[in-house]
Amino acid sequence: MTSALVIGAGPAGLMAAEELAMAGLSVIVADAKPSPARKFLMAGKSGLNLTKSEPISAFLAHIHGPDSLRKIVGDFGPEEVQEWAKAHGQEVFTGSSGRVFPKVMKASPLLRNWLARLDQAGVELRRNWRWVGTADGAMQFDTPEGPQTLRPNVTVLALGGASWARLGSDGKWVSILAENGVSCVPFQPTNMGFVLAWSDHMARHFGQPVKSVRVTAGDQSVQGEFVISSRGIEGSAIYAVSRAMREGAPLTLDLLPGRSLDDITARLSRPRGKASLSNHLRKTLKLDPVKTSLLQEFSRPLPSDPAQLAALIKALPIPHQGPRPMDEAISTAGGVPFDALDDGLMIKALPGVFACGEMLDWEAPTGGYLLTTCFATGRHAGRAAATYATR
After folding, report:
1. pTM (2 decimals)?
2. What is the three-state SS of the chain?
3. Most buried among 43, 155, 196, 335, by the most CB within 10 A?
4. Where are the domains of the chain?
């Protein structure tokens, strides 16, 4: 008999395991991969963005889910995440955009310290254990030693969403829950790139960033940057409006968010003499080659009227062919609906079984919101599971 079982060794699962161990329970963490937190490590390769330092009301506005989820995140928000990281031996700093990173800019030192602390607390990590079902309160696994069964007092599921299957998030657990009377919301990609059919002249810009633009889709708008790739567009600014784009809102770019429409119109009205339109744009507006190419890609032939051209620069329509495949998305929406859970994130149809992290039906942009919400739901489910197990 195991006191507590956590299935999934990502950020949410490890947070739940930490809470269960702190409550004095014997904890086993089972993960389908040979090493834990693979997606967490991948996210940290370019700088582990733990959270976003901003007022909690502004932070919670980026979390798309029920009020109960925002309350959970409010209890373990940006300040709490920073203190938690420091307690695990990682000093943090806040960048100019408000994003918070470990000073070492990597996920691996934090993960090593975290796993060492869990090991010291008696948490046992079982690798290559894939969850395949449940029957009569027993959790069934395929393992290198053959089929195994555990009968915990309490279980926390932290199995991830349905993107980046090679790192462990394949969404196959949906069928197991369906067999136990839990209907999940179909998965959809979030924080993903979008397909564009570029003309040949854009090839020289593949891999280049488009900086200091305002990206707008529906009621979502953000100033930032994105990258042009051979497959389309991707990057933080696109991810921030990807939900609205996925739902059909048209995408527009303000190529010069620091200049007003009137100012751009006045500058374009200056005599250009024998200069080409591209040189005129460069000289009067300092429009760089990437932005000029985008303007020509989607609005050729460019209007000669300064007011019409200025209007395009401030709201350039960007047609696309939809999102990239879901397995390429950073995260997914869909999964276990909140009406299938109680306030402690216990699955109502499976007493003693809790769920957390990306396997729940919510979404948030990158930039610290996504990871903080995984931490917060793992912590909440772990605490609730500990109370249930010791009741």
Report:
1. 0.93
2. CEEEEEECCCHHHHHHHHHHHHCCCCEEEECCCCCCCHHHHHHHHHCCCCEECCCHHHHHCCCECCHHHHHHHHHCCHHHHHHHHHHCCCCEEECCCCEEEECCCCCHHHHHHHHHHHHHCCCEEECCCEEEEEECCEEEEEECCEEEEECEEEEEECCCCCCCHHHCCCCCHHHHHHHCCCCCEEEEEECCCEECCCCHHHHHHCCCEEEEEEEEECCEEEEEEEEEECCEEECHHHHHCHHHHHCCCCEEEECCCCCCHHHHHHHHCCCCCCCCHHHHHHHHHCCCHHHHHHHHHHHCCCCCCHHHHHHHHHCEECCCCCECCHHHCCEEEEEECHHHECCCCEECCCCCEEECHHHECCECCCCCHHHHHHHHHHHHHHHHHHHHHHC
3. 155
4. 2-190+329-390, 199-317
